[in-house]
Amino acid sequence: MPAVFLKDRSLLSVGGADAQSFLQNLITTDITSLASDEARPGALLTPQGKILFDFMIWQDGDGYVIETNADQRDGLLKRLTMYRLRAAVTLALVAEEGVSVCWGEDEDGIRDAESVGDSRGVRDSRFAKAGIALTRRPGRHGDGAEALYDALRIAHGIAISGSDFALQDAFPHDVLLDLNGGLSFKKGCYVGQEVVSRMQHRGTARRRVVTVSAAAALPGTGTEITAAGKPVGTLGSVAGGSGLAIVRIDRAGAAMAEGTPLLAGETPVALALPQWSGLVFPTSSDEASA
């Protein structure tokens, strides 16, 4: 059962009597329904509804732990402090650096992975959607190659900022937060909520994460994916002949329906929506021209 240490992850703690209401009114995640052993994705949005910071969040006693990229940590702490005002909330950096992830895909692996949750591990809801029991735990508790974790999340369509999308450039729908537990449409207002709710109710989310496969090694992150010379999306994380991309699924669907080859640079590729998402490619040429 692989166990990998992610050295570039950092942790913040959020505590105090108002911690839950403070976060519930600020971030995309519905934390009132968080199970005690569950980690969910989430984001703090711009007023225009784009992802300003992305993270994982879980309960820690009466408070919460937020796990984010090390290069986002200080900015996120500063932004949370700005929003705190007079709320009874404590915000602090957690001294322990890095996070370990552990998973197993067969019956024994799932049982072993769940046992980590009994020793401070928390279940990652994104992977649970894909049928993978993966736990996250602060600190170093494994020595597997980080490439193993990257290959796992690429295979199951789990995007991360930096590699797959730029902060302040993507909406939550683009990275499937609406489908993996990271975006609530049932709780009250939070920053950017009006925009993402409108996208949801109007069905206007056309950019989505897809898995990319090729017979040869894929070109690098940032390579444009095209159909008949027209842009469809941009390649993100890459591991050999597999990768992730955020694409206009209406344009990609129309190209596939017409038999038009899709290319990442000069490399022929096939695109698929993550099975767990329940999404399908539209095929209407009218939608493709929207």
Describe this structure in words.
The chain is an alpha+beta fold and 290 residues long. The protein folds into two domains: 3-155, Aminomethyltransferase beta-barrel domains (Alpha-Beta Plaits), CATH 3.30.70; 206-290, Aminomethyltransferase beta-barrel domains (Elongation Factor Tu (Ef-tu), domain 3, Beta Barrel). The chain has eight helices and 15 strands. The N and C termini lie far apart (46 Å).
Question: What are the defining features of this structure?
Answer:
Elongation Factor Tu (Ef-tu), domain 3; globular; nine-stranded mixed β-sheet; 2 domains; 8 helices; six-stranded antiparallel barrel; Alpha-Beta Plaits; disordered C terminus; about 290 residues; alpha+beta; 15 strands; about 30% strand
Give the rounded overall mean pLDDT: 92
Q: Strand sequence of the main sheet, in spatial order?
A: 1-7-9-8-3-4-5-2-6
Instruction: Compute the number of structural domains.
Output: 2
Give the amount of beta strand, in percent: 25-35%
Q: Gap between N and C termini, in Å?
A: 46 Å
Q: Count the beta strands.
A: 15
> Which term fits the overall shape?
globular
Rounded to an integer in angstroms, the radius of gyration calculated over CA atoms is 19 Å
What share of residues is helical?
10-25%
Architecture of the largest domain, CATH level 2? 2-Layer Sandwich
Oligomer: single chain
Topology:
Layout: E1 3-6, E2 9-15, H1 19-24, E3 38-45, E4 51-60, E5 63-69, H2 70-84, E6 90-93, E7 99-104, H3 107-117, E8 122-124, H4 125-129, E9 133-138, H5 146-155, H6 193-202, E10 207-213, E11 224-227, E12 230-239, E13 242-248, H7 249-258, E14 262-264, E15 267-272, H8 285-288
Parallel strand pairs: 3-8
Antiparallel strand pairs: 1-7, 2-5, 2-6, 3-4, 4-5, 7-9, 8-9, 10-13, 10-15, 11-12, 11-14, 12-13, 14-15
